[in-house]
Amino acid sequence: MTIAERLSTMDDKALANLKANATRLQSGETRRREEAAQLLPLIEAEMADRISRLPPKPPRAPVKRRRVAEPVAEPAEAPTED
To answer: 3: left (phi > 0), else alpha (psi -120 to 50), else beta?
Structure first.
C-alpha cells in the first residue's frame, strides 16, 4: 500500500505531519523532491475534503458589552454669604 493510498486512513495529525514533511522535502534530493511534489496535491485535496465534511460552526453569540457610566458633573458651589 502506497502513502497516497493510505491518506484517507490517516488521522488529521498524521496527515498534517506528512504535509509538513513533504513540504520540507521539496528542497531535498531529486527523487524525494519528485515524490513530495506528487504527494502534496493529494494531501491538500484530502485535507480540503475533510474540512468540507465538518459540520458548520454554530453562530457566535453577540458580545455583551457593559455600558460605561457617564461621569457625574459636580454641582456648582453656591456662593456663601459671610
So the answer is: alpha
